[in-house]
Design a protein that fits this description.
alpha/beta, Rossmann fold, Isopropylmalate Dehydrogenase, globular
């Protein structure tokens, strides 16, 4: 397998030389408190919790979680405060806690006080299917409803960057992440405009654009995932049955796919927002403590690779 799994990411986080200051927007949440407490005990993070301080302390007391070493910031606008902590250099990453996504994104995307860059902001999920010993990335699973062709080009850049950050050292020299441009069909046709865009992305990659990765599409999920699907359908290519990353045509298909896997497969997963001035641990409020820890380990890997390359 070319990408590191969560066991390796946890081991790497355990070996970090110093904890990373991570700020949470909306700290009065059981999974937030449990995950940040466990991460702090392991030496991963120094927790900063923005939100209703009284509610946070009451919940921590009910859960018998010590807040020693935590810094709490009482605020009715936790997203704004959390972003300000990053901008001031007091935090190196942000976590979505008990807060609505629109409220968080409004603060992150503010042109005056937010974390905007020139890059598109997108959620990249790392999925690990234990039964099949498969690991792959999926995007955009959380932000952009209908990405344009230009936005898909930016998403390819995110997938390539993340995949290279998660590269298993055991992979062969010269390895390039294989990105499948997903669709309901492997044939390009006007009836499905996204297939035409997928075909264009593949053509441009073959012509020399994005040399740091391999792009193939359109591909259906079975062709991108299953090693025997290509032979059955008589379709070949580097990403067939071996995709390390999947670029979806829209939020609907991406979100439905990732949640279907999350709730029905024997899997582990975590999510990070890419494209902001810092990584954002981006979770559903329905996700578990373990998923928050997975996402933290994933985020810390991204931070460490960013620092080592700067």
């Amino acid at each position: 397998m070319s990408l590191l799994g969560f066991d390796a990411l946890f081991a790497a986080a355990d070996c970090r030389p110093a904890p990373a200051p991570i700020v949470v927007a909306g700290g009065a949440d059981q999974t937030v408190l449990e995950a940040m407490s466990q991460a702090a005990l392991r030496g991963w993070v120094t927790p900063i919790l923005a939100g209703d301080e009284r509610a946070t302390r009451q919940l921590a007391e009910q859960l018998e979680i010590s807040l020693d070493g935590f810094r709490l910031i009482d605020s009715e606008a936790p997203a704004v405060v959390a972003v300000a902590e990053v901008r001031a250099g007091r935090a190196v990453a942000l976590m979505k806690g008990q807060i609505a996504t629109p409220d968080l994104m409004k603060a992150v995307l503010s042109r005056e006080t937010g974390l905007r860059t020139e890059r598109m902001i997108a959620q990249v999920v790392l999925m690990e299917i234990l039964r099949d010993r498969r690991r792959f990335l999926l995007t955009d699973t959380g932000i952009t409803i209908q990405p344009t062709l230009d936005q898909k080009i930016d998403l390819i850049g995110h997938l390539a960057t993340v995949a290279n950050s998660l590269r298993d050292p055991a992979t062969e020299p010269g390895w390039k992440p294989r990105i499948a441009v997903m669709s309901a069909s492997e044939k390009a046709g006007a009836a499905m405009p996204d297939t035409l865009e997928a075909d264009e992305l593949q053509r441009r990659n073959h012509a020399g654009e994005w040399p740091e990765c391999v792009v193939q599409g359109p591909l259906s999920f079975d062709l991108a995932y299953a090693t025997d699907a290509g032979a059955k359908k008589n379709i070949a290519g580097e990403a067939v049955g071996a995709a390390e990353a999947m670029l979806f045509p829209n939020l609907l298909s991406a979100n439905l796919t990732v949640k279907a896997i999350m709730y029905t497969a024997d899997c582990r997963f975590g999510g990070v927002l890419c494209g902001a001035a810092c990584p954002v641990v981006f979770m559903s409020r329905a996700d578990s403590t373990q998923t928050r820890l997975n996402s933290l380990a994933y985020t810390l890997r991204m931070l460490d690779r960013r620092m080592s390359s700067s």
